[in-house]
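Much of the work behind modern protein science is quiet bookkeeping, done one molecule at a time. The protein below has been through that process, and both of its lines are reproduced in full.


***
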Amino acid sequence: MTLEHKYVEGSPDAPLLLLLHGTGGSPDDLLGLARELSPDSAVLAPAGPVSEYGAARWFRRLAEGVFDHEDVVKRANQLADFVLEAREKYGLGDRRLVAVGFSNGANIAAAATLLRPDVVREAALFAAMSPVPDPPDHDLSASRVFLANGEHDPMAPLASTEELIGLLRERGADVVTQRHPGGHLITPDGVRAARKWITP
């Protein structure tokens, strides 16, 4: 497999959750969140392949909030190819998959949704911002995205989040948003809203 990861089997009737940690995280970080979102789900939790002074990330950045867009595209494709590998290795067939990401993990999930809708069609994003300024004009009419963001998040400014929402909707994606008055975090209200969204 191309990425280090953890896989935990679950019910084939529940969506497979692809867990994508934030900067400096690990595959274990979002396991508790996964149990809150969909207790019966299998989880696939890879580790970010990029090291920033020892902290695992999903793609390089040039400065805080300034992404290396060429690397974003490369890593989004790497993640999508990993998912295809995992489907084969674990016999997952065409089981429904929902990417769940926080911060840097939400950004790579958003990038994969925009760039590889053949692999990632559903994503629950916590504290996400726009990862690529000019993604290809893929038809995303079969895609669903949930976003929960803080109104005062200095690391994922609302202007960038709105740009991401616009890119998704312009391409036909079904987008649901949830705002909270806080900063760069996952709130209980956001988790409840995501749980409801995952099980329509």
